[in-house]
Amino acid sequence: MSPKPVSRPGGRSARVQAAVHAAVRSLLAEVDRSEITIPAIADRAKVTPSTIYRRWGDLAELLADVAMERIRPDGEPQDTGSAKSDLAAWAEQYAEEMASDVGRQMYRDILASRSGANIPGQCCDIVRRQMLTLAERAAGRSEAFPDLEAIMDGVVAPIVYRILFAEPPSQEHCRALVEALFAERRRRDGGVSRDAA
User: Fold this and answer.
1) Is CATH 3.30.70.2190 the right assignment for the domain spanning 11-63?
2) Cβ–Cβ under 8 Å, residues 138 and 165
3) What is the pTM of this model?
4) Is the dihedral of CA 166, 128, 78, 180 positive or negative?
5) Given 15, 75, 76, 82, which residue has the most CB atoms within 10 angstroms?
């Protein structure tokens, strides 16, 4: 069984992780992926290959760990002034970033993880935390906001599916997904939910 990647460690462990991640990112920018090996990464990071094998187990797990670090948002979702437009802005930005060549490769690296660390599940947790931020913001404005799982099923899942298996969703399509979700929420609430446009 491969060792689990350690997230956000401290001290020497943090320095090793930072050096190895930087080495992977620089190699990905410079050479074909087929040329990336653990010895090449170790040489670039100034660590021994055994250090990488002990910590990540194999190249697939290391690439998944790097992708997870890159996929973490830099800050909170954009505050546009209303719950519906907050979610629409998030969906449009997420679709644009993840439909890029880099974004698609991050998805592939994350899905290739075979460790017990459940890296795909961690990816979902990042999105859920962002949605909880939007929900709390909506509650502070006394605005209705869809249930978390409804967002995951009705907005996030269709975006990810289209990015991986079809044409990436347009901004209009992302907005339509959000509009449909809010319309369904209004129907369930008898047409009385307050959600600013």
Assistant:
1) no
2) no
3) 0.81
4) positive
5) 82
